[in-house]
Amino acid sequence: MRRSYILGLVPLTLMLVGFGLGATKASAQTAYNFVVDYDTLLSTDPTFKSDVPGVSKIKIQGTSNNAPYGLSNFISNNYSLFNPDTSIATSYGDPAKLGVKGAPIGGDRYFGGSNELIGISELGDDMAKFGPGTVSGSGTISIKDGTGIFKGAQGTIKFIENDVLGSDPSQPANGKATLTFAFTTPKSVPEPKTDAAIVGMGVIGTSLLLRRRRLVKAPLNLN
Questions:
Q1: In the CATH scheme, what is the code of domain 28-187?
Q2: How far apart are CA 33 and CA 123, in angstroms?
Q3: pLDDT, tens digit, for every residue of 85-120?
Q4: 47-74 burial code (b ≥16 CB/10 A, e <16)
């Protein structure tokens, strides 16, 4: 009986110890929300040849004097399909979404110091409207990762851009863009001494039960 009683305590102890060792770190996130105005330079790649009519390779460079976290520059490489009937161009970072095969995937990089953000236009809302001497665009960039304090970043960048076209459309166009950043980064928060506390409870509880069992079995000494 005593042997079975002691053996019955073993699973209890292992359960408590195992529960303590299985405790995990709690997850938390740091949220970032800010707006930056950039001076932009829009250009097309004259060397790009597409097997899909109306597709161009677009590059936008941006600079800012007041960007937080060192994000004073950005480079955006996308593929744009122009519809002459609507004068609207739709852009993606992945050329395959426009039917272009064999071209490298583009993307966006926001940088300037030790912290960087990496993103891509993939939602289909990146559109530019061409007017007389102007281009007005807007859309959303999906943030996929980052470096420095932005490592593991996930979120979006919404932008509004206006460019002024020169008389020669093959020449770069200057403009202004307002970018609204909204993203989070992961942060691990350890549970305070959870493992040690639960393991200690298992050991102490088992010791007390065994001691009580020995006292019950011991003969009384009345002399």
A1: 2.40.480
A2: 20
A3: 999 999 999 999 999 999 999 999 999 999 999 999
A4: eeebeeeebbbbebebebeebebebbbb
The angle formed by the CA atoms of residues 112, 118 and 120, to the nearest 5 degrees, is 130
Picking from 19, 13, 30, the residue whose alpha carbon sits closest to that of residue 191 is 19
Cα–Cα distance, 132 to 144 (Å, whole number): 35
pLDDT at 170: 79
Q: Which residue, among 44, 130, 133, has the nearest Cα to 87 in the 3D structure?
A: 130
Residue in the block written with tokens 């509004």: 160
pTM (2 d.p.)? 0.74
Residue 84's SS3 state is coil
Give the whole-angstrom CA distance, residue 99 versus residue 51.
9
β partners of residue 36: 179
Tell me the C-alpha distance between 178 and 123, whole Å: 19
Instruction: Name the one residue in this structure whose structure tokens are 């770190």.
Output: 25
pLDDT digits (tens, 9 = 90+) for 55-94: 999 999 999 999 999 999 999 999 999 999 999 999 999 9
Q: What is the per-residue pLDDT for 187? A: 86
